[in-house]
What does this fold into?
Amino acid sequence: MKNMIEYEVDGVFSDYPDLIRDILNSEESK
It folds into this structure.
């Protein structure tokens, strides 16, 4: 199950690198 989740997360990162980066940046600035 964990591998499936990690695979989906990797897919999201490769599909939306800019979006993920913006989310991480906004989380860090809180």
